[in-house]
Amino acid sequence: YCPTAGRFMLEDKDITGWPPYRIVEAGIARTFQNIRLFGNMSLEENVLVGEHTRLKASLGGALFRTPAQKQDEARAQERARELLDFVGLVDKKGEYAANLAYGEQRRLELARALATEPRLLLLDEPTAGMNHSEAGQVMDLIHTIRDLGVTIILIEHNMQVMMGAAEWIVAFDAGAKIAEGTPKEIQYNKKVIEAYLGEEEN
Predict the structure, then answer these.
(1) Where do the domains of the chain lie, and which CATH numbers do they carry?
(2) Long-range pairs for 103-107 at CB < 8 Å and ≥24 separation?
(3) What number is the average pLDDT over the span 130-139?
(4) pLDDT single digits (tens) 31-88
(5) Global pTM value
């Protein structure tokens, strides 16, 4: 998508209009509000899809099954299992993604995004449609990912989730920015309260 205004900058690099594969190579990964997994593939295979951007072997190596290619694939499989263990799904690595519960699918999507080794992770309403327990598991993972040094941009309408997860919040109403600040500042911001909770009638 082309922006209607402005530029997308990653550190000092203008990435506006870059194709998705270059954006991933630059260190940006994302998850979607509507889960986009390969349901007829195993959990491990889904994570390996994310790993392919970091494989080093050539097309010739893949065709002729060179030792370098085999080593590359073995490392990718090991990394995929580590990520599945990280999100608590390694015991189900051989199962079809379509058979997972909704909250588990969200965690698998996080594992696949992490397989690209991102510096910046974009999460679009990662707790949407979840019960309290599932949302808590996903938010615990997000906190851990942040603590590992990955920058996270979180799009979320659930104010409780935002207040517990964010260090800095930018609030929008009808596509326009109405406030930004720390969670505490946003919590007591008059414009935010009116936009998200409604204005009290006299």
Answers:
(1) 9-166 (3.40.50.300)
(2) 103/130, 103/131, 103/133, 103/134, 103/135, 103/137, 103/138, 105/35, 105/37, 106/31, 106/35, 106/130, 106/134, 106/138, 107/137, 107/138, 107/141
(3) 89
(4) 988 888 999 999 999 999 998 877 766 666 666 577 777 888 889 899 999 999 999 9
(5) 0.86
Quickly count: other Cβ atoms within 10 Å of residue 112's Cβ: 26
Provide the token pair at 176: 């326009």
Contact 36, 8 (CB under 8 A): no
Report long-range pairs for 196-200 (Cβ below 8 Å, ≥24 apart): 196/159, 196/171
CA nearest neighbour of 32 among 16, 20, 42, 43 = 20
Classify burial at 48, counting beta carbons within 10 Å of its beta carbon; exposed 0-12, middle 13-18, buried 19 or more: buried
pLDDT band at 200 (very low <50, low <70, confident <90, very high): low
Report CA-CA distances (Å) from 35 to 12, 124, 135. Answer: 31, 10, 15
Give the H or E element holding residue 145: helix 132-147
User: How far separated are the first and last CA of the chain, in Å rounded?
Assistant: 44
